[in-house]
Amino acid sequence: MKVIISVLLLSCIVFISSCYYDKEDLLYGGANSAPCTDSVGTVSYAQKIVPLLQQYCYSCHTGSFPSGNELMGTYTSDKAMAQNGKLFGTVNHSTGFSPMPKGMPKMTTCQIATIRKWIDTGMLNN
Ligand code: HEC
What we know:
The chain is mostly helical. It is built from six helices and no strands. It has helices spanning about 1-25, 45-55, 60, 75-85, 85-90, 110-120.
């Protein structure tokens, strides 16, 4: 009897969580479920990462007095931030990191996945 109840409960949970994702797709107008081609294969630093960081980060994190004393804007500095985990931690809004870009909406799932892929494939200067 207990087993049957557990199985029923489990299928309820699975059912409810599948509904949750359906709703999420609706909420985001399907934008998040569009194929994320940028994060497929090799991610080019120059062609994919720099434009993203330029749009979302460089305005505050370049120059002589970068915000939070966190310098970005060159391959060396961007790679250093990726290596110490802060690049992904901040854009992914992971616990223990200050959420970035500051005062702006979170980057899209695809943009974050693209950054993740660049990091996971060795942060190439390509
Ligand atoms: C509007 C200005 C602004 C923008 C845009 C911005 N930042 Fe920041 N950032 C700050 C300020 C101010 C701080 C220091 C205060 C704090 O940590 O919240 C900071 C701190 C940080 C830190 C240190 C936080 C920690 O938890 O150690 C990192 C890493 C960082 N930013 C990365 C980024 C990245 C990556 C982007 C782009 C996705 C970005 N920032 C965009 C203003 C900005």
